[in-house]
Write a structure and sequence with these properties.
Layout lengths: L1 H33 L6 H27 L8 H25 L5 H8 L2 H11 L8 H17 L7 H26 L8 H29 L10 H31 L2 H22 L6 H66 L4
Length: 362
């Protein structure tokens, strides 16, 4: 029976990881393909935000009907003070990431996005979510050195796109740090990612809309892709393509939630390493991205830094688990001692009572 349960857990883990890979890798290539013809990445992101909000609202409604429990709705003060910074950082991270795909290859995009670990690490230390460790300096040197080697003398390097995705990685560090703080605050009640998505999306839309209006508003309103269509077929093609991307975006968020809820964030980090390798290989073989031996070496060095960071997190989690188990054992031992002491006292009291009752007859 135990053997069958182990097999089941292993198959479930493989299924969840594959489910995550399909959406994570799929949306990267899909967005790159879509923007070869539909060159409005910020509008595409706004459509994705709208679809994610609609689907998360529908999911909340289904959960409410299924469980009978009302879903959390934040008051305006908490919503604007605590959710708004996370929403703005998330909107700019995703918007700039999609925008950068207009200028750079998927391989350069994938490699540069791995630098988000550096910024997450920096902000985790700033917010005291991570404890300082000398080995973290090695992590920073490996990742930054690998990124430099990957971009050095790259034949398909584009400075504008590189700066965009690097800025997106910086904002991603703020985004995931604030998201962790937001979801760990039990008083807010946003531990369920569906509730978090529902609350974040409207502010994301509001935060990204001015940038869209400034950069793409006029061009899109005069484009024959949507608002000046002369035939129905191209219009339906654009709508269907945008809607499909929105489904992929929601699927990515949902698959991350499933993987973390059934395993751990550590498993998601490890799966992310192999996802980057898979994305880079697919970009080289399917999209024709040119990657030199020095670039591959830089990618390997960067992965070593990420792997070291994941390993440090694993050791830290194991130490915490061992400490919890030790405290539990101490508590059980204390309880046992108290119980033994109480039993001994009861025994002495019982003997005393017997002696008192026996004394008059003597």
């Amino acid at each position: 029976m135990a053997h069958l349960q182990s097999i089941y857990r292993g198959l479930r883990l493989i299924g969840l990881v594959l489910f995550y890979y399909i959406f994570s890798i799929g949306i990267t290539f899909y967005n790159k393909w879509l923007m070869t013809d539909f060159r409005y990445p910020l509008f595409m992101t706004l459509v994705h935000i709208t679809i994610i909000f609609s689907l998360s609202a529908a999911t909340r409604r289904i959960l409410h009907s299924w469980t009978g429990k009302p879903r959390i709705i934040l008051n305006w003060a908490d919503y604007l003070q605590r959710v708004a910074p996370t929403a703005l950082a998330t909107a700019l991270d995703i918007g700039l990431s999609n925008w950068s795909l207009l200028f750079i290859t998927i391989s350069l995009y994938t490699m540069t996005k791995t630098s988000a670990v550096l910024f997450i690490l920096f902000f985790s230390l700033a917010f005291k979510l991570e404890e300082p460790n000398p080995l973290l300096i090695i992590v920073v040197l490996l990742i930054s050195g690998g990124l430099f080697m990957f971009t050095f003398e790259s034949t398909q390097f584009n400075l504008e796109g590189f700066v965009m995705v690097l800025l997106a990685s910086f904002l991603g560090g703020i985004r995931w740090t604030l998201t962790q703080v937001l979801m760990q605050k039990a008083e807010l009640g946003l531990q369920n990612p569906v509730d978090a998505l529902y609350h974040i999306q409207p502010l994301m839309f509001i935060g990204l809309f001015p940038l869209f209006q400034y950069n793409e508003g006029l061009r899109l309103s005069t484009s024959d892709k949507l608002f000046r269509v002369t035939e129905l077929s191209p219009f339906l093609h654009s709508v269907l393509a945008l809607f499909s991307g929105g489904l992929l975006a929601f699927g990515l968020s949902f698959s991350e939630f499933l993987l973390v809820s059934y395993t751990s964030s550590l498993t998601l980090s490890i799966a992310g390493i192999f996802k980057e390798v898979s994305t880079l290989l697919l970009a080289a073989f399917l999209m024709g991205d040119k990657v030199s031996p020095l670039n591959w070496l830089g990618f390997a060095v960067c992965l070593c830094g990420i792997s070291l960071h994941v390993g440090l997190k694993a050791c830290k989690s194991k130490s915490k688990c061992n400490l919890v188990l030790l405290n539990i054992k101490r508590a059980v031992s204390s309880m046992k001692s108290i119980c033994d002491l109480n039993s001994e006292k009861k025994y002495h009291v019982l003997n005393l009572k017997r002696s008192i009752l026996a004394s008059p007859s003597q």
